[in-house]
Amino acid sequence: MSQIKCVLFDLGGVVLNWNNSWLTDEISKQFNLSKEKFEQEFDNHLGVLSSGKMTEKEFWESISKKIDASNLIRQDSILEPVFRKLVSINQSVYSLSSKLKDNGLSIGILSNTEPVTYSVIESLESFDHFDYKFLSYEIGLVKPDPKIYEHVVSNLPYKKEELFFIDDTIQNVHSANDYGLRTVQFHSYDSLVNDLERLDIL
To answer: pTM of whole model > 0.90?
Structure first.
C-alpha cells in the first residue's frame, strides 16, 4: 500500500493545456516584436512576476526597455486576453484530481503563476475541491527554488515522503525530488495514470 497521502499538481502543462511559448508567440505577433528577443526577455522576467515582486505593468515596462518596444507600455492587461484566448482545462487530469480525492487522498496545487492569469484560471473551472493551493505570487517563491518545497512541507500536515508532486517541467521535478518529494514528470494523462497505478496511488 502506498504511503502517499497528498498529491500536488502543477497547473500549466498539467491541469491546464498550456505552454508559455503559445503566449510569447501570440504577443510577439500582435506587437510586431522579434520573437527570439522577446521570448528571452519574457523568460528572464517571468520569475520575478510570478514571485509577486513585480506588477504586470512593471513587467512590460522592464521588458520594453530591454527590447525597445514602447508599445508594450499600456494601462490595460496584455496577459489577460491572450491567456484567456489560448488556455483550456485538461479535463482528464482535472477529473483525475477529483477521483484521487474521492479515494481519500488530499490534493493540492503547487504552481508558478501570477494574479492576472490565475484569475482567468479560476473563471474557467472550480478549484474548490483542492485542499491546498500554493501559488508562487502569494508565497514569494518560484519553482525550482528548493525553498518553495520547504514552504509547502512546513504548511502541510504531512511528511515529505507522504507527498507526491506532478509537474511538466523537468527542472521542477528534479528540484522537488532532490528536496525529498516523490515526483513524476507529466507527459500525458495515460502515462500519469500508469505512474499512479504503478506506485499504488490510484
So the answer is: yes
